[in-house]
Amino acid sequence: MKELVFVGLGLNDEKGISIHGLEEAKTADSVFMELYTSLLPDFSLERFEALLGKTITTLSRRNFEEENGKLILDAANRGRTVLLVPGDPFVATTHIALRIDAEKLGIRTRIVHGASIISAIIGISGLHNYKFGKTVTVPFPENFSETPYNVIAQNKKLGLHTLCLLDLKAEENRFLTIREGLEYLLSIEHRRIENIITSEAIAVGVARVGSDSPSLRADFARNLLKFDFGGPPHSLILTGQLHFMEIEALINLAGAPKELREVAK
């Protein structure tokens, strides 16, 4: 059977995969995995291969971007193939081109979803899911763009929170930190002076979501810059208009200062 199954690995380690996903990988003719689009801090390829009872072919960014996923498509043309992806396979749009190419070649595609960093960050923060606007990625300085600032401004005008995913290059072991992300945004504010992201902005930092030792802190940006969140991956939330229950969640769950009750509207 010509088939390509995209399986989400979930968060943090090899235990994050669903039972359904594990069964798909165990019974596949070929199993591939990429770990460059996100970081699973405690993932062990050796443990995972022992769990599956088979060898996994690990792919790099080059296999997708320069070779257009040829290795995977060739395998899927020969039999049922699984591609393991961190988190939930298509929350990021990285592999949609591969799925389209597979369908064009007459290869059936399916998805086995996994826990997503998007919903997990929102859940752990205590903020309301329906109060979030457009998500944006804060890039490394060498890929400078004011898009994150613009997106936050658009969301803020609507009273909505902004989830800022922080750039990473897993193959180079480079991960943007919460402090670096805030400094990036504050530098744009310093030039534009639109009162969108100031040192008084209420922000939430989250690190290593899905692990046994996540780090969560809400505070004014000036204070969050000084907080040590530990190892990656990091993510950042810039809040919009806060509901009183969200304020209580940030104070009691994320260590936000009690004066938040007075300044948030």
Could you characterize what this model shows?
The strands form three sheets. The chain has a five-stranded parallel beta sheet, with helices on both faces. It has a five-stranded mixed beta sheet with strand order 6-7-12-10-11. It starts with a strand and ends with a helix. It has helices at 19-27, 45-52, 61-65, 70-78, 96-104, 117-125, 147-157, 178-192, 221-224, 244-253, 260-263; strands spanning 3-8, 30-34, 57-59, 80-85, 108-112, 136-138, 162-166, 168-169, 174-175, 202-207, 215-220, 234-238. It is of the alpha/beta class and 265 residues long. The relative contact order is 0.15. The protein folds into two domains: 3-112, Tetrapyrrole methylase, N-terminal domain (Cobalt-precorrin-4 Transmethylase, domain 1, 3-Layer(aba) Sandwich), CATH 3.40.1010; 117-263, Tetrapyrrole methylase, C-terminal domain (Methyltransferase, Cobalt-precorrin-4 Transmethylase, Domain 2, 2-Layer Sandwich), CATH 3.30.950. The longest helix has 15 residues, at 178-192.
